[in-house]
Design a protein that fits this description.
heterodimer, A: about 280 residues, alpha+beta, Uridine Diphospho-n-acetylenolpyruvylglucosamine Reductase, domain 3, Enolase-like, domain 1, 3 domains, 5-stranded antiparallel beta sheet, about 30% helix, globular, B: about 775 residues, Aldehyde Oxidoreductase, domain 4, Aldehyde Oxidoreductase, domain 3, 7-stranded mixed beta sheet, 6-stranded mixed beta sheet, FAD (chain A)
């Protein structure tokens, strides 16, 4: 479990980083941010990048700011920084809840939000957050910048819209409106393990009925997904255990789980019900 | 005579806490560990050392057509690459002999010869200037394997191991009584088909071997040893054609043993052979993936068991056929786990007739051997499942059913017409019924049943279960200890035991301190070294405290007697009126004068002392404790579980281990043993499993796939240490405490899950996985 040899690059600016990436991308050059997925993979020699571009020295990549209705998250923002005290409001509350489920404390202080998105593990909590809330990804290379919606960014198991010479230089999460309620539920064998199913629900309650509902499911299909049909069932309805059960049951037939284990669908059902119940403040 | 078997006239340790014994004193081992000054295998380095990397099979079964190391040898920094041809003269890894014959052809070669039989089997060894280069070179070794079908089910008919040999080296048969007659006259016959999954000890510290040849003294040293130093030394010497006195093993700190670490493995031989042949120190540190693939697995068995009972639920006979999945080769334990399973299955119950056939089967998986409570974790699960099934069939309360069958105190010592590990099974002492009562009382069983009823009424899925077990410990035949007081009064204790982190140094020091009349904390304990004592049996089978502890007691008594005899004439008093307190010989009546320190006495007994002329000098004694029979601790596990209906997850909310170990030398260490042992049992019950795909590829090769319980999975654990049944077999009355925390966890949790589900007998397989529980929940749903 010693990594194969690689060349180490330590750029100090974004321009420098992108230039190096452009040069080394043909040789499987990789970006090193938190390294919490990449380094173990290299130790197993399942990844053998000839170059590592360590972006931790790029000061601007620590960007974390709420501006213009979005939370801007730079490439070196660690899991532990998402949520209180750095991020407030309803979005901060949701992120703070979710981050506790990400692996273990040492990993949360090193691993990065953008790194998780770029890695695109189907069990990634941040990928689910991004898909559910409709994040926008800012992808940049020496050739220019493009913006990609979460729905197009995630393309399968550990597959994204990123080209080899592109870096995810920013993720933009829409801030949640004041009063937005959110619920998150994840099932894993032990706390900190990879999610076998997880769901996020957000909505506001106006006059006792749900509006602007969003419901996302992760860990089940090969990428996180929103469930628009389920959201339509929720919109304008008062929250209730019966409705949530019906929504979950209706969502299952359309899913394409990564495994043929029937247990995974049962977990998906439970995750949906519990995320909705938590958002609504109902007993699970 | 300095070798003794315990007899009725020997000095027994007084009951109750003493000056040093029976007290939760802090560990002697801890100062270097908590200061980061420990010496684990990876901490051992020698100048000019090279690093070994093992090339391992990536197919489960196949004919080894060729191994091409040309490219690897050409890599700068590579010192050598060995294939089986380079180690052809080294015999296969041996096993410790039992009466089971014919296992030799199934032993593992140091490097695979013409076939590979499991993913992870060593095929070649690379030696290079650093560990990175060694791994680079290992990647360059080209291996050509012609695949063969993999045998993965030990219960399937045997297949070919090699031409003329099939995959069932032996069947272990035991039994007594007229089983057929018992079944013919039975009121009821209960049959079960039960399986225990493949899991094992996964030490935090992986294995390591650092071999060094000291040409100046013609000594081969192996560092990083654990568990069985003397046997390993003797075998390494034999396999490499050297006299045993020219090979020495050294144990540093050991980051977990559990039965798997410290056995003799191919890598140990490779490192030693390379140190001799390449004339450089050789360092090998197993990585985690290798640890999952190469270190002994354990546990996997399938039992088809049936019981004949009378109308009151009394056992008339048990008939068990089981299949033990040994993996690809016979390892150093031979068929020991099968022997233990067959011999220990009856547990605490009166059993008139018994027949067992343990099929020892080879498969194309990592070889297996002992893991904490070997053969007992499996058979306690099987036996206690059987008792629960009998209770269900006859509509008898499961606790009452057990009471009816428990061996009574009046029947102790209770001989079973069985042998295990070559010694006759005689349950030496016990009050099983009393401990059952104590456990139920401590767990609050009656109130618990009421609270479970209330919680169920509010929709929760909760249940409780229990299991009784009998352990074995103190495996003989012998262990020795030499205790010496030097001229400064410092006590040194040299033992043939080993430490796998369990607190051996502390426990032996406490016993020595108690007998000798000195403080325990100043005693220097030496163990795990073949250069300091001629023989030793290491640390396994919950034997150290019993065997080495008893030898310590006797050696310390002998030193004490020598000290008093030497001091008495100088103090002009009779030895009978003298005692030793805090290392000072003084009057028993409390008078402080006259007195003499042990240091002064040691000087009186030195080699230059005129008083010693013609005698062997030194205030020192070596004693060997011998034992023909094992001693049998026992206990009860109680579990309360809650099942999440939405996920199938089982949460253990409360757990009790009640364990009678005769005498707790250090209750804190006993509790530690039980808590750690419980965690491992919990792993096997709910989390840990080495899984394979249909081609024999291992699926559990990281800690993300092989789930061990962590702090968040540990329930509130209560430990009841009972001392109601001291062993008559040793002067301390002790029984081993290393495995009772593990033994019955699978059994008790299975019973609790059954109870929560309201489906008696639902759990037939360990580990109990959420998906399985979900199916059982669905089965019960209207």
């Amino acid at each position: 479990m010693k990594p194969a040899a690689f060349r180490y690059h330590a750029p100090r600016t974004e321009e420098e980083a992108l230039a190096i990436l452009a040069a080394v991308a043909p040789e499987d050059g990789r970006i090193l941010a938190g390294g919490q997925s990449l380094m173990p993979t290299m130790a197993f020699r399942m990844a053998r990048p000839a170059h590592l571009v360590d972006i931790n020295g790029v000061a601007a990549f620590g960007l974390l700011a709420a501006e213009g209705g979005v939370l801007r998250i730079g490439p070196c923002v660690r899991h532990a920084m998402l949520g209180a005290p750095l991020v407030g409001g309803p979005l901060g509350a949701l992120l703070g809840t979710v981050r506790r489920h990400i692996a273990h404390l040492p990993i949360r202080t090193r691993g990065t939000f953008c790194g998780s998105l770029a890695h695109a593990d189907p069990a990634s909590e941040w990928c689910l957050v991004s898909a559910t809330l409709g994040a926008e990804m800012v992808l940049r290379s020496v050739g220019g910048t493009r913006r990609v919606a979460a729905a197009e960014f995630f393309q399968g198991i550990m597959t994204t819209a990123l080209a080899a010479d592109e870096m995810l230089v920013e993720a933009r999460l829409p801030l949640l409106a004041e009063g937005t309620r959110s619920g998150f539920y994840e099932f894993s064998r032990r706390p900190g393990d990879f999610a076998q199913a997880m769901a996020i629900a957000t909505f506001t309650l106006d006059g006792g009925v749900m509006s602007a509902p969003r419901l996302g499911l992760g860990g089940v299909e090969d990428r996180p997904c929103r469930l628009p049909a389920a959201e339509a069932m929720l919109d304008g309805q008062p929250p209730s255990a019966a409705l949530f059960a019906a929504v979950a049951a209706a969502a299952l037939p359309g899913l394409v789980p990564m495994t043929d284990d029937p247990h995974r669908l049962r977990l998906a059902e439970t995750a949906i019900i519990r995320a909705l119940s938590r958002a609504a403040g109902l007993p699970e | 005579m300095d070798g003794t078997t315990h007899g009725p006239d020997d000095a027994r340790m007084a009951a109750g806490p003493g000056e040093a014994v029976g007290r939760a004193v802090t560990r002697l081992e801890d100062p270097p560990l908590v200061r980061g000054r420990g010496l684990f295998a990876a901490d051992v380095n020698f100048p000019r050392q090279i690093h070994m990397r093992v090339v391992r099979a990536e197919l489960a079964h196949g004919l080894l057509r060729s191994v091409d190391a040309t490219a690897a040898r050409a890599l700068p920094g590579v010192v050598a690459v060995w294939t089986s041809a380079d180690v052809a003269e080294i015999p296969s890894i041996p096993f410790r002999a039992t009466k089971v014959q014919g296992l030799e052809p199934y032993c593992q070669p140091v490097l695979a010869r013409d076939r590979v039989r499991y993913v992870g089997e060593p095929i070649a060894a690379v030696f290079a200037e650093d560990a990175y280069l060694a791994e680079d070179a290992a990647d360059l070794v080209a291996v050509d394997i012609e695949p063969l079908p993999a045998v993965l089910d030990a219960a399937a008919p045997p297949a070919e191991f090699a031409p003329g040999l099939h995959t069932e080296p032996t069947i272990v048969r035991k039994g007594f009584g007229d089983v057929d007659a018992a079944f013919a006259m039975a009121h009821a016959v209960i049959e079960l088909d039960l399986s225990v999954g493949r899991h094992s000890g996964v030490p935090l510290e992986t294995r390591g071997a650092i071999a060094r040849y000291d040409a100046a003294r013609d000594l081969l040293e192996l560092h990083g040893a654990a568990k069985k130093q003397h046997w390993n030394r003797d075998e390494i010497a034999r396999l490499l054609g050297r006299p045993p006195s020219s090979v020495h093993l050294f144990e540093g700190h050991v980051g977990g043993g559990f039965g798997v670490r410290g056995e003799l493995y191919p890598e140990d031989l490779l490192a030693c052979a390379a140190a001799l042949r390449l004339d450089r120190p050789v360092k090998w540190i197993e990585d985690r993936r290798e640890n999952f693939l190469a270190t002994n697995h354990s546990r996997q068995q399938r039992h088809r068991i049936r019981a004949a009972v009378d109308a009151e639920g009394r056992l008339l006979a048990i008939d068990d056929v089981f299949f033990h999945d040994q993996g690809a080769y016979v390892r150093t334990h031979g068929a020991r786990v099968v022997d233990l399973a067959a011999g220990m299955l009856p547990g605490p119950y009166r059993l008139p007739a018994y027949r067992v056939a343990g099929h020892f089967r080879l498969t194309n998986k990592t070889p297996a051997a002992t893991y904490r409570a070997p053969g007992r974790y499996e058979t306690t699960f099987v036996r206690e499942r059987l008792m629960d099934a009998i209770a269900t069939r006859l509509a008898i309360d499961p606790i009452e059913l057990r009471r009816r069958n428990l061996v009574a105190t009046a029947e102790m010592p209770y001989p079973r017409p069985l042998d295990v590990l070559g010694s006759d099974v005689v349950l030496d002492s016990g009050d099983y019924a009393k401990l059952l009562d104590q456990a139920l009382d401590r767990f609050g069983w009656k109130a618990l049943r009421e609270s479970i009823a209330a919680r169920r009424a509010s929709g929760e899925c909760v249940g409780a279960g229990l299991a009784f077990f009998v352990e074995k410990s103190g495996l003989g035949p012998s262990d020795g200890v030499r205790i010496t007081v030097d001229h400064t009064g410092t006590v040194e204790l040299v033992s043939g035991a080993a430490s796998v982190g369990q607190g051996v140094d502390t426990v032996l020091a406490q016993i020595c301190a108690e007998a000798l009349g000195v403080g325990y904390s100043g005693i220097r304990v030496v163990r795990g070294r073949t250069d300091r004592i001629e023989f030793g049996n290491g640390a396994h089978a919950s034997r150290v405290t019993v065997m080495s502890g008893s030898a310590t007691w006797q050696a310390a008594q002998a030193v004490r007697a020598m000290a008093l005899e030497t001091a008495a004439p100088l103090l002009q008093l009779s030895p009978e009126v003298l005692t030793i307190r805090d290392g000072i010989v003084q009057r028993k009546d409390g008078a402080t004068e006259p007195s003499m320190t042990l240091a002064e006495i040691a000087r009186q007994m030195g080699p230059n002392s005129p008083a010693m002329r013609g005698r062997t000098p030194g205030l020192t004694a070596e004693k060997w404790f011998w034992s023909d029979h094992m001693t049998y601790p026992y206990g009860v596990h109680c579990a309360l579980v809650c099942i999440d209906r939405g996920t199938g997850a089982v949460k253990v909310e409360r757990y009790l281990v009640a364990n009678d170990i005769g005498r707790a030398i250090n209750p804190m260490l006993v509790e530690g043993q039980i808590a750690g042992g419980f965690a491992q049992g919990l792993g096997g019950a709910l989390y840990e499993e080495f899984r394979y795909d249909e081609t024999g590829q291992p699926l559990s090769t990281t800690f993300a796939d092989y789930l061990i319980p962590t702090a968040t999975e540990m329930p509130a654990l209560d430990v009841l240490i009972a001392e109601d049944a001291p062993s008559p077999l040793n002067p301390l009355g002790i029984k081993g405490a290393g495995e009772g925390g593990t033994n019955a966890v699978g059994a008790a949790i299975a019973a609790a899950v059954d109870d929560a589900l309201g489906q008696p007998g639902a759990v037939t397989t360990l580990p109990i996985l959420p998906g399985t529980v979900m199916r059982l929940l669905d089965r019960a749903a209207p």
